[in-house]
Each structure stands twice: as structure tokens, then as C-alpha cells.
Amino acid sequence: xxxxxxxxxxxxxxxxxxxxxxxxxxxxxxxxxxxxxxxxxxxxxxxxxxxxxxxxxxxxxxxxxxxxxxxxxxxxxxxxxxxxxxxxxxxxxxxxxxxxxxxxxxxxxxx
Length: 111
Hints:
The protein is α+β, with helices and mostly antiparallel strands. About 40% of the residues lie in helices and about 10% in strands.
């Protein structure tokens, strides 16, 4: 048999009754916390504040920067960036847009 329903009849009952669209889902609390931590870290980089940067590291955290070495814990990270900022006084201080996800935070890539 041929399909005899009209377009209005084919729609789901919620659509034909004029139901509202579902609201946009809110960011999960964990996602917001990750985003805030990422923004805080990048703000510390922009401000060239090694103490604020080191505060983001776990006492047993490891920063492995291949050309420079492996830095363990906040004290070594603080020392690294203190020395780095002292050596690079001409680094532009523009705020970069960052991408945050649940598990990783990354800044912009340069090609």
C-alpha cells in the first residue's frame, strides 16, 4: 500500500504538539574546573609568573621538555621558568586562546 500519511502526521507527536526544543546542555562541573585551571596556567605564563605556574604542578609531577630535560616537582619547574623568563625578555605577552578538554589542556600550535 502507498504511504497515505501527510507530512504533519509523519512528525513525532512532540513536534506536532509544539513541544519546546531541549535546552543547551550546561558544561559539567569537572569540565569547568579543567577549563579554569588551564586558563589560570596560561594567565601565569602570560604574566611570566613562575610561582603561579609551579603552583599548578603536583609535588610528584614531571615536566618533560625534550630539548631541555626532565623537571620533577614544583621547585624544579619554578627554577626552569625563572631561568627561562630571565633569558627571554623579548617574548611577546599576548594572551593566546587555549583549548581545554576533560583531560588535557593545550595552547595554540605554531607552524
